[in-house]
Amino acid sequence: MAHINVPEGVPGIRSLVMFRPETGKHLYELAQVLLRGESTLSEAERELIAAHVSSRNKCFFCMSSHAAAARCLYGDEEDIVDDVLRDAKNANISDKMKALLNIAGKVQILGKEVSQADIDAARAEEATDREIHDTVLIAAAFCMFNRYVDGLASPTPTDPKIYEEMGKRMAGGYNPPQSQS
Amino acid sequence: MAYIDLQNEFPGIRGPMAFRPETAKPLNMLAEILLRDDNNTLTRGERELIGAYVSSLNDCFFCQNIHGALAGHYLDLDIEQVDAIKSDYSLTDLSPKMKSLLSIAGSVQKGGKWVTPQQIEKARSNGATDMEIHDTVLISASFCMFNRYVDGLGTWAPQDRTYYTNRAPQRASEGYIDFDLAK
Predict the structure, then answer these.
(1) Which chain B residue's Cα is nearest to A28?
(2) How many Cβ atoms from other residues are within 10 Å of residue A178's Cβ?
(3) What is the pLDDT of residues A101-158, one digit of tens each?
(4) CA–CA distance from B53 to each of A80, B60, B87, B136, B157 (Å)?
(5) Interface A:B, Cβ pairs < 8 A
(6) Whole-prediction pTM value?
């Protein structure tokens, strides 16, 4: 049971966005620009940052759905996602992605945890300023989304099949659900 | 100095917003509807106070000072009174409803799962509506984003706190959408 009277049978953030579409449309636009907009980070890499931060925040709904979207976008390399969720530091990903995931992990704790050394390490692996900016904002945004979803105790499915379907839909982009009238 | 070259000298969140206008747009639209829209039973001052309180818990100097100054502007509180609320709102003369909403905001700051059904019940018994509880949770969650964005990029913040109180009337009248990032 959610803490407030959200529509029945709608999972996670979608139930909250149907309850309050005026704020929901901007949340979805933010997700669309950050995760699907033009970027030198692939959509799969950006979903991976989102899943990593959601996992650290122990938000089952966001972690499961963004991990599913990332698996879908990685295609043949989908094992990367579970590899990173298990142990990001030793995962089979580029050193640049490791440095960016390290920054995202610091942001998850608190903004002030990020140090110049963390930034320098990402730059040494040729991360651009725009990529560092987007990594920080994706991590920060998921510290919002995770708290929004869990802070109102929105309905959280447990069946992996449901997340697999969700991931496929999310891979195609973020469109807010239509509110019930 | 920010950690990355933002190609501008603006303080706080205005630096990265000018650097990346595509993401600034939904961020500002969200702030406008959450904090400033008149179709809300929480006053602008109450909503800014929630933002200032969460920013102080997140130790974000820029956000707690500008949003604290805005709360003070709307609620006619001076800087000491806003500081007293941030340090222990339970000792202030805020309404029981606002105290129970700040309690929820404080739990959200720690993590979504910290919010308990008892806190929600308490807020309801003090007259809070579902919409007010929703907005409190989302304001707190969004400041957990804004604060991390500002500090995670190492942006600079004016240290003189009167900088923020002096700006508050202008920021209050302009709002979050139609303003010049350079001013």
Answers:
(1) B26
(2) 9
(3) 999 999 999 999 999 999 999 999 999 999 999 999 999 999 999 999 999 999 999 9
(4) 39, 10, 9, 12, 18
(5) 151
(6) 0.97
**Maximum separation of any 2 CA atoms in chain A, in Å:** 53
**A residues 124-163 closer than 8 Å to B (CB):** 129-130, 132-134, 136-137, 139-141, 143-153
Q: CB under 8 Å, gap of 24 or more: what pairs does B15-22 form?
A: B15/B153, B15/B155, B15/B156, B16/A133, B16/A137, B16/B149, B16/B150, B16/B153, B16/B155, B17/B181, B18/B181, B18/B182, B19/A133, B20/A130, B20/A133, B20/A134, B20/A137, B22/A33, B22/A37
| Rounded-to-integer distance, Cα A92 and Cα B121, Å | 47
ipTM computed for the complex? 0.97
- List the single residue in B16, B134, B142 with the smallest CB-CB distance to A133: B16
CA distance B82 to B9: 28
Q: Which residue of A has its CA nearest to B109?
A: A147
Neighboring chain B residues of A27 at a CB cutoff of 8 Å: 26, 30
pLDDT of A181 above 70: no
Cβ–Cβ under 8 Å, residues B51 and B86: no
Contact between residue A175 and residue A169 where contact means Cβ atoms under 8 Å apart: no
| Touching B: A residues 61-90, CB under 8 Å | none
